[in-house]
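2024-03-11 09:14:02 INFO worker-7 job=invfold-0412 stage=load source=structure_tokens
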């Protein structure tokens, strides 16, 4: 079960309607600061517990409505909705195996099974009836929507509360519950059960309380008729014992609650717990609601090798749980795989799309490449992207037989032939006296070729007068060359 689609309407910085589709595995959100990446995380929080419209509405349309609509899909969705606390949603599963919920400030109403009219407000979670196409509120109270899915957030300004919570829907609780399944059959737990029965049963607390029971019975009998009263102290579920737990971290012999540590240590703990969670082998036939992971800038406080290990863990988790990652790390994106990952580029520049899918980064048959992602997401000018563009355009033109070899039309794969062809193109950037590269008596005529050759064979050369004629290309020169080749690729 995973979020396949989300529709935002006037939600925070997303004015108007915006539809986003997601992958069931890892979803990367990239873009500059304040471009709306973590707003998607907030939309999930809104679905879970949104109340006050002023906290969520786009500021310049405060008189209009705000809504978030989420579509769930997955081959396990039918089975999940058969769980006792989710059966109320099973009749809302569509024929194409989708469940759609929404929270909206727009007032409405629906008619229940007893033909009774009921109102729909911001406080109500609405579920789409696939037969009527209308939204209803079968759960009555919002808290029941949390029974449908768990969301685990790790924000860059992390609050540790969720990772100090040992409840069975939280990471620590799930870890403990998973590894203690056999514990309840061991002698030490059975002895605890026996001790509890002795302490709170007929041999312990019960006789002490019998006089109080009798006094209560007498009063009830006088006022309401004969009634028996009995105090019962059953053994709490093992999960209730876990809830009283805390995580203590020891440094230099001093133990401190994790919640009292700094943000860096708290994030390290949260991400460590997630990595441990990825190492647990869940039973294949176990049906349970999923945990959705929302991780904001996981590269913070992590060196490249640690980023590698974390992403490997998230990769494993994503086989069963959907993962959303916001990142500014070009290094982290080196592991992007278009077959298993989804990538969205966020922007607030008016001329750009608000959210651009990776499938629109289609310069190459192998798009999106690492260099392509970082150029369009962050404006990062990299030598790798320049070489990708140059190499692809070179092969493309060679295959189309649009080559020149020493001024004559011939089929050639030579770099020098490609350089001659580039030199005839509109808006070409040519070399100058300080950017000259001579290989086999051929001097590069265009900056794209010069930059390509300098990247592959760096170093300065001086002419007979001692003047440096082979300077290192600047970032702006590489950027201009990239822009030229992108436009050239579009028309050839």
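2024-03-11 09:14:09 INFO worker-7 stage=emit residues=492
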């Amino acid at each position: 079960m995973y979020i396949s689609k989300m529709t935002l309407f006037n939600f925070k910085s997303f004015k108007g309607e915006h539809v986003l589709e997601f992958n069931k595995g890892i979803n990367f959100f990239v873009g500059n600061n304040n471009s709306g990446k973590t707003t998607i995380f907030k939309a999930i929080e809104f679905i879970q517990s949104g109340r006050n419209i002023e906290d969520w509405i786009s500021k310049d349309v405060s008189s209009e409505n705000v809504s978030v609509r989420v579509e769930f899909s997955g081959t396990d969705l039918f089975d999940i909705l058969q769980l006792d606390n989710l059966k109320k949603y099973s009749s809302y599963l569509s024929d194409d195996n989708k469940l759609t919920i929404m929270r909206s400030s727009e007032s409405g109403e629906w008619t229940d099974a007893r033909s009774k009219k009921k109102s729909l407000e911001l406080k109500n979670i609405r579920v789409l009836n696939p037969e009527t196409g209308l939204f209803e509120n079968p759960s009555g109270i919002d808290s029941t929507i949390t029974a449908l899915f768990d969301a685990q957030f790790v924000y860059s300004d992390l609050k540790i509360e969720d990772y100090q919570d040992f409840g069975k829907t939280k990471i620590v609780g799930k870890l403990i519950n998973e590894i203690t399944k056999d514990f309840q059959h061991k002698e030490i737990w059975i002895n605890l059960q026996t001790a509890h029965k002795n302490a709170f049963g007929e041999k312990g607390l019960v006789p002490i309380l019998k006089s109080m029971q009798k006094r209560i019975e007498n009063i009830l009998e006088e006022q309401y008729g004969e009634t028996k009263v009995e105090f019962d102290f059953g053994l709490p579920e093992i999960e209730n014992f876990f809830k009283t737990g805390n995580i203590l971290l020891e440094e230099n012999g001093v133990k401190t609650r994790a919640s009292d540590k700094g943000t860096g240590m708290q994030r390290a703990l949260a991400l460590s717990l997630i990595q441990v969670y990825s190492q647990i082998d869940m039973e294949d036939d176990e049906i349970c609601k999923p945990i959705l992971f929302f991780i904001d800038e996981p590269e913070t406080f992590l060196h490249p090798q640690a980023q590698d290990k974390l992403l490997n863990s998230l990769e494993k988790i994503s086989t069963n749980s959907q993962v959303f990652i916001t990142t500014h790390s070009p290094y982290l994106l080196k592991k992007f795989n278009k077959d298993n990952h989804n990538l969205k580029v966020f922007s607030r520049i008016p001329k750009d799309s608000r959210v651009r899918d990776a499938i629109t980064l289609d310069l190459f048959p192998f798009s999106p490449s690492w260099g392509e992602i970082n150029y369009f997401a962050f404006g990062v000018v990299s030598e790798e992207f320049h070489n990708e563009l140059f190499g692809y355009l070179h092969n493309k033109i060679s295959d189309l037989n649009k080559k020149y070899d020493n001024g004559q039309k011939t089929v050639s794969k030579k770099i020098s032939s490609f350089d001659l062809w580039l030199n005839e193109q509109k808006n070409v950037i040519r070399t100058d006296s300080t950017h000259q590269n001579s290989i086999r008596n051929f001097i590069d005529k265009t900056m794209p070729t010069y930059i390509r050759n300098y990247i592959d064979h760096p170093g300065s050369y001086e002419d007979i007068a001692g003047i440096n004629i082979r300077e290192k290309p600047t970032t702006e020169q590489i950027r201009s060359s990239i822009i030229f080749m992108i436009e050239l690729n579009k028309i050839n």
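2024-03-11 09:14:09 INFO worker-7 stage=report msg="Residues 2-166+262-378 form a domain with the Rossmann fold fold (CATH 3.40.50.300)."
2024-03-11 09:14:10 INFO worker-7 job finished
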